[in-house]
Each structure stands twice: as C-alpha cells, then as structure tokens.
C-alpha cells in the first residue's frame, strides 16, 4: 500500500490514481465475490444462495482475514502481497479452504454451477501456489478473466463489455509496477485455461 501511494505521488497523479483504483476495484477478493454472486443469481434458489455464501465465506473471507492479520502483524507489505514470498502462506491456506469447500459442495450435491466454481477454485489456487514458489503471476488478471468468461457464458453478448476489465486491470498492475506484462498475460491465459474446460465439463 505504501509503495502504491508513493507511486501516486511520483508518477503523473491522475494516471497513477486511476491505476490504483482500478487495481483496488479489480482485486481478486472482489471479483471472486462477484463471480460467486453471478452463479447465485443464475440459480436463484434459497439453497443455492446458502451454499454461495458458504463458498464466499470459506474461500474468500477466511483467506482475506488471514492476509489482514499478516499486514497488521507486519508480516506482509500490504493486502495485495507484492512480495512473492509473502504470498505462499496465504495461498497454502487458500488451497486448504478451497479443497474443504469443494468436498462439502460435492457431498451435499450443491447446484452444479457451484460445484464447477469450487472445482475451478481448487485448480486455480493449487496452480497459483506452485507457480508462486518460483515465479510471480497476476491473480488480478486470472480472477478478472474468469469473471468475464463466466459472465459471457451465462448472459451472452450482453456481458461482453465486461471483458474490457481484463486489459484495464492488466494495465493498472503493470503501471503500478506490481507485475510485468508477461505476468499479466500469464494470469489471463491461466484463467482461460482453467475455466474453459470446466465450462465444457459442467455446462
């Protein structure tokens, strides 16, 4: 956070502030919640909403709470975890919560779209953890890609404008020097590579 604020002061103010807020709005927890809500609205039954909130709580809120604790304890620079090494433990926790969520949703025969989302999340977090051990990749771009592709699959061409969020978020991460172009492209390709086969299997 301090680094981003410093960059807002050094770089051209308006452009840097725009990049900062795009990065905040496009953060993986927010896009993850929106993705889950899209499925909840699509199914729109009381049981589906209960399991949607279960998914959000375990796979998003719990890891977020841990990251906030790391930041307050001085063990992480900021909520976006710019240092690759600081991402490992939160990702390990995310893998555990993702697997638990996946197992529960399958055991209770939750709606198929929610099962798909849980499967995508397990694969995504596991791959992210493996990549992060050696390299840094943009989870912002992966999350934005999954949200955009899922919205297009559910709502068709009316959701097409949402795809513009992908290059905007990628630009913001590069402009803030949180990622390289290659890392943002890698994030986009990972999102497509995970969700596309999942849609073919579950849709």
From TrEMBL:
Keyword tags: Membrane, Transmembrane, Transmembrane helix
Tagged with keyword Transmembrane: yes
Transmembrane residue ranges: 20-41, 53-71, 91-110, 116-135, 147-169, 181-202
Protein name: Uncharacterized protein
Species for this entry: uncultured bacterium A1Q1_fos_2004
């Amino acid at each position: 956070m301090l680094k981003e604020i410093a960059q807002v002061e050094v770089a051209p103010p308006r452009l840097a502030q725009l990049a900062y807020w795009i990065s905040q709005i496009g953060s993986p927890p927010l896009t993850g919640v929106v993705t889950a809500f899209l499925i909840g609205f699509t199914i729109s039954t009381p049981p589906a909403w209960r399991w949607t909130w279960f998914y959000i709580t375990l796979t998003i809120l719990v890891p977020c709470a841990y990251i906030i604790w790391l930041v307050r304890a001085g063990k992480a620079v900021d909520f976006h975890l710019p240092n690759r090494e600081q991402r490992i433990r939160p990702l390990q926790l995310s893998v555990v919560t993702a697997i638990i969520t996946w197992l529960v949703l399958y055991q209770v025969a939750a709606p198929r779209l929610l099962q798909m989302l849980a499967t995508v999340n397990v694969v995504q977090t596991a791959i992210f953890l493996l990549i992060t051990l050696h390299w840094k990749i943009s989870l912002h771009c992966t999350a934005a890609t999954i949200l955009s592709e899922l919205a297009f699959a559910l709502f068709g061409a009316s959701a097409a404008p949402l795809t513009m969020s992908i290059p905007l978020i990628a630009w913001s991460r590069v402009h803030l020097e949180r990622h390289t172009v290659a890392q943002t492209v890698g994030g986009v390709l990972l999102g497509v590579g995970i969700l596309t086969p999942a849609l073919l299997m579950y849709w």
